[in-house]
Amino acid sequence: MPDQQESRFKLPPVYQLGFVVSDIEKTCKHYEAVFGTGPFSEVIDVDMDGAILRGKPVNTKIKVAFVQSGDVQIELIQPVEGENLYTEFLETKGDGIHHLGYQVDDMEAMKAEFVRRGGEPVFSRDMGVMEFAYFDTSELGGLMIEFLRFKDAGE
Questions:
Q1: In this structure, are residues 70 and 17 in contact, taking their beta carbons and an 8 Å threshold?
Q2: pTM for the whole thing?
């Protein structure tokens, strides 16, 4: 039986659904035409050099596009080069839902709580304006969890 502290822990509402895709432009057009989702943001090239993948720094680049669907942001991610979770996902599962993203105010506290519960961050980086940390929770439920913290201009 969980103790009182265990039962009080609760993730915030889902902020983002992350999809990994092999062709981001094609996927944006498809979602807009078939599902009426969009328009997506402009496709953005992201340099993630210095991200930490399973404890070691990696150089990697991706493309992303976003659209809001009610209270949930949909993120499309296309890996471009380097080692990352997204390329691994494409190679093992193909295009699909990769993660649930949760916006958090205290990244260090949330990471510490997940480590306390037996998890380890598998992919993380401080990007300046925001930071992220993924935990591999795919064994149960098939998805990763991503914590996102957006920084104020003064940070």
A1: no
A2: 0.91
Instruction: Give the pLDDT score at 7.
Output: 59
Q: How far apart are CA 23 and CA 63, in angstroms?
A: 10
Contacts 24+ apart (CB under 8 A), 21-29: 21/76, 21/77, 21/78, 21/95, 22/78, 22/90, 22/94, 22/95, 23/78, 24/63, 24/64, 24/65, 24/76, 24/77, 24/78, 27/76, 27/95, 28/65, 28/76
DSSP string, 106-136: -HHHHHHHHHHTT--EEEEEE-SSEEEEEE-
pLDDT of residue 117: 85
SS (H, E, C) 37-97: CCCCCCCEEEECCCEEECCEEECEEEEEEEEEECCEEEEEEEEEEECCHHHHHHHHHCCEE
Q: Which fold has domain 4-150?
A: 2,3-Dihydroxybiphenyl 1,2-Dioxygenase; domain 1 (3.10.180)
Identify the segments of the chain with pLDDT beneath 50: 1-2, 4
